[in-house]
Structures are given as structure tokens and as C-alpha cells.
Amino acid sequence: WMPTAAQVGALPDATVGIAKGGTGATAAAAAIYNLVNALTALSSTGLATGDYLPLLDASATTGKKVTLANLKAWLQSQNIGARIATGSYTGTGTYGASNPCSLTFNFPPKLVAISTPLISENSPDGYAIMGIWIAGLNIMLIGKGYADANVTNNNGFFNMAANGNASASGNTLQFYGLKSSWPYNALNFNGKIYTYTTLG
Questions:
Q1: CB–CB of 156/150 below 8 Å?
Q2: For the chain (length 200 residues), average pLDDT per consecutive 10?
Q3: Over the range 12-43, which residues count as b (16 or more CB within 10 Å of their CB) and which as e?
Q4: Which of 23, 60, 62, 191 has a CA-to-CA distance to 111 between 20 and 30 Å?
Q5: What is the pTM for the complete model shown?
Q6: Rounded distance, CA 127 to CA 141, Å?
Q7: What pLDDT does 87 receive?
């Protein structure tokens, strides 16, 4: 049985509130605003990669949903926004073109900074090592700085004589030191932990 319009009568002009199952508005845009605005706010710590966001699929002319993880992957594939990766590796003591260090990221690197704390080289105070690679360069700029400010033979960072070779392909950066007499120049001193920060 389907009631007729005469049996139903005229619909009320007042909008139905959200608490009663309505939208609290007569226009579509205002209705969506009211529905979203009535939701509980979620903090950044409450987000999860499996959470969904609604979207309008223009090509399919329909509404859909997308997870935060898939949205992030799409944004990265479009090179939208900066990407950062951090990590560490332990040196093995090798050097030379046949023994390169290799770091692989989730994106093509644009800038890589690598460092390790003090390494001893016949000095009680030792020195710190740092390397920087920038996209477009075929060398890893490597240098050292002594921990003791009173050391007069302080080579300083980015000693050009300590440059190693480096090359990037896709998401991977490879680099190696040129001389065994400079163990720091390979960024691969045996047993030392190196940390890196990468921008893409």
C-alpha cells in the first residue's frame, strides 16, 4: 500500500534536525556542512592509516572513500610535498668502487646527510664525521671535525680532499671512499653506527 499525496498532506517547511535523522538544512552544501560539523573531532594522535576520507569521484560521478594510506601514496606519486626518511647503518670497513655503501628509500633522494659520533684516529678526543650528497652531484662531500676545540690541525668539515664518489638511481644512493688511508672518507668505518636524514 502506498499513500497518496492527499493522504500524506503537505510536508512541513521546517527542516529536520540532525538528532532526528535530518540534516538541519534544505540546501545540499549546508546539509553536508551541518553533518560534518556535528561529528566528533579527531586529534592527530587518533589518526590511523586505515581511516577513511570521503571524496567525490568526478570521472565516475559518484561518491567514494579513500584510506589515509592510499591518499598518502597518491600524493607521493605526484611529488606533492616534501618527504623525509631517517635511519642508520653499521660500517663494515670496506672502501673503493667495488665495495660501495647503498641506501634505498621510498622515494628518489634529493639530499642525504650522514653522520657518526667520534672516531679515534691516534687522538684521545677523536673527531666527528659528516657526509652530504645533493642530487646532481657525483660526489659525496665528506669531512671531519675534531671534538677538541684546542686541536690546531683541525681539517674542518667538507675537506675536499676527502670526497668520495656517489651516484643515485631511482630510490637508491650508492657511495664509496677513495683511499684506505682515510677510513672516514668511505662513511663506512668498521663497527661505527652512521645515522642519515634524507629529503625527497
A1: no
A2: 68 70 84 87 88 90 92 81 91 86 94 82 62 88 64 48 75 83 72 92
A3: eeebeeeeeeebbbeeeeebeebeeeeeeeee
A4: 191
A5: 0.61
A6: 16
A7: 97
Contact 132, 173 (CB under 8 A): no
Q: Extract the C-alpha cell encoding 142.
A: 665528506
The amino acid at 55: L
Q: How far apart are alpha carbons 199 and 152 in whole angstroms?
A: 35
In the chain, the DSSP E strands lie at: 52-57, 62-67, 84-90, 101-104, 111-119, 127-134, 139-146, 164-169, 172-176, 193-199
Set of cell numbers at residue 86 = 631517517
